[in-house]
Protein 1
Amino acid sequence: MSRCVHLQVWSTIMASVEWNKKEELVAEQALKHLKTYSPLLAAVAKSSKAELSLLVRIQEYCYDNMNFMKSFQKIVVMLYKSRSYFSHLVVMLYKSRSHFSHLVVMLYKNMSHFSHLVVMLYKNMSHFSHLL
C-alpha cells in the first residue's frame, strides 16, 4: 500500500478541483494548483521508482483527459523547476525511448526540447564538476 501512496496523492490532488473546460485555461489552472502541492508530491515520491511511476501517471492523466493533452510538458517542467523532480528520469527516457510504447512516444514528442536541455545541463555539470 505504501508504495502506491504517491499515485493516490496524485489522484486525490487532481480530483479535488473542478477543471476549466477550455484547454488554454486548464493548463494555467493546473500549474497553479499543482505548484501548491509540489512539496507533498516530493515527500511521497522519494525513490526513482516512485518518481517514474508518478511521471507515467501524470502522462496517462494528460493522455486520458483531452483538455490536459498540451499541459503535460508544462506540468513536468514546473515540477522539475520547483523541486528538480524527474531530471534523471527525463534523461533516461530521452536516451531509451522504447520502454513505454505509446506513452513514451507522447512523452518524447512533448518533451524532446526540455529533455535536450536537461541532458545538456548534465553534460555541462560534468565538465565543471572538478570545480565544485
Protein 2
Amino acid sequence: MSFLKRFNAAVDEAKIAQPVILFCNGYKAHVLYGAAMFCLEKKIILYMLLSHATHLLQPLNVGVFSEMKTTWSAHVMEWMQANEGEVLKKMYFSGILKKAWEDVATKEHSQKAFQKAGLCPFTEKAVDYSCLLTEEEEKQKKEQKKKKEAEQQGNNAQLNEELLQIAGTIMDINMDDNLQSSSFLDETTGMMYAGKKKLVNKSGKKSHVKKKS
C-alpha cells in the first residue's frame, strides 16, 4: 500500500492523465483487497506479468539488472587492478556499488528496458518468444522430470537395500567376534566353553551341553 500511495502521488505530481497502468509481478500483496480498492479509486490499472516470464517481460530484469551485473564486474576488476594484492573487503563494497549503480540507473537505461520488454511503446514483437516453451515442450519437460524422479527413487531404494545388507553383514561379524571372545576354559572339568552353545574337552572332541550357569 505504501508503494501504491507513493506511485499515485508521483502520478499526480507529474500531472499524468488517468487512468494509468501499473505493471507488476504476481506478488500476493499486490492483489490484496485494500490494494485493489485503492487502485480502483485512484484509476490505477494493475497488470500482473506472467509467472516465470519476468526475465522477458519485467523491465528491471531485461534492461537494468543484467547490465548491472556486467557493470559491477567491470568496476570490481578496475578496483583490483588499482589495488593489486589487496582483498576486496566489505568496507569497499558500498563505494564500488555506488559507481556501478550510477552508471546503470539512468533514464536512458530505464527507457530501453521498457522497449526491450515490449511495454512502452507497446510492441508485441519486441519480446523474444524463442525463450518460452511451447505447450508440447512444456509437456515433454514435465514427463522428463517425472521420469528422472522415478529413476532417483529406484536408485535410492537399491541403495537402501545394499546398505541394509552391509549392516546385516557387519552385525554377523560382530556376533561372531563376541562369541569367540566369550570362550573360556573350565579348569575343574577340563572343558572349553565356546560361547554358550558348545564345549570342547582337552582331547579336541566336541560335545553339546546345557547352558552353563
